[in-house]
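Table S2 (continued). Query chain:
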Amino acid sequence: MLTGDIGLIKDINERLVLNLIREHELISGAELANITGMRPSTISSLLKELQSKSLVINRGKGESTIKGGKRPFLWSLNKDVGYVVGLDLEINQAIGVVLDLESNVIQRTVYHDQQIKKPADLVKLTREVTEDLTVKRKIPLESILGMGIGISGIVNADKGIIITTDVLKQEDIPLREMLKECFDFPVFVENNANAAAMGAKWVEKSGNVDNFMTVVVEVGKHVGGLGIGLILNGGLFHGAKFASGELNFMLPTLNSELQSLKGRFSEGEILSKQQDNLDAIDIHFIIDAAREGDTIAIEYFQRLGQTIGQGIASSVALINPEKLIIEGDIAVLDEIITEPIIHAIKKEVHTFTSSSLEIETGAYGRYAVSIGAASIILNDIFKIPLVTSNAIKTYF
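Corresponding output:
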């Protein structure tokens, strides 16, 4: 016979009510009782407990129902009780964000020309970016509930160890352990594509889809690659050894493609002015050119999209996701990049699979990974405990 853990049941009920308030944004105690099946007195007690922790706010009385009666008190999440930080660590670059508890982005910054040559540089950079983000918004460090870090490569997310990454030559970097001396709040380390998938689930509101795939595309002058993040049955899928989605598929570098197209720059209204100045063209320049209608820039992304589609087609066929979300800098291109991708996929997979696949671009472009990394903390905060009360983390 199993004996119920009263403390665990209370924690479960609190998390359940907190999640419902978060999802509905504004809700009454009566509605919470109706949805959960709990007694109104139980809901009232839980709301008082959450209010004592400053997690929820009483927003006053709402309108009476059509049956009349007392006007119900309405409750909302206290989004400013704490904040979460998300970092995207890349080659020579770091991108940082701060989110409130409603997943609103309240601060974001890109840090260029970051030299990362050894693990200690990762620690130093993480400290500097976190301090900069919080100082700009005047957020005390004690209000930070946790930090998520996204980085390319294979990451043991359970232990916070970077097994291998193209950001550094070293392997098996215990980044979470190294950061314990710097921060009092929890730190999670995750593969960048997996982080982006969590961001799509939490912030971009793809949570209504239980099976979807994110593709993080990175294209630089000298590097090019992609990674896949998977949400399966509503949860993040890591694989047996945290290597799910690591295709080892290289995209053509920007420099190699520009050299190939250079002879036709005169056909483009914008790129024609840069025919003798290829060094001035980075991915953001060519994205802007494509959005302004430059024919050669558009052709570049058509070729890139076709290559991406060919590279992920087998994964699409294997997983059969409901949705495919393109993340990264190129996400701002919308149909310019999604159309050649889906066209290439259709050539490689069964018609039934491709016809049921919805493809879209993420809403946050270059910030997708850092926002997703922060979302990992939100997911952990609001996660309803299933096993023992010892497994519940204390954030508040």
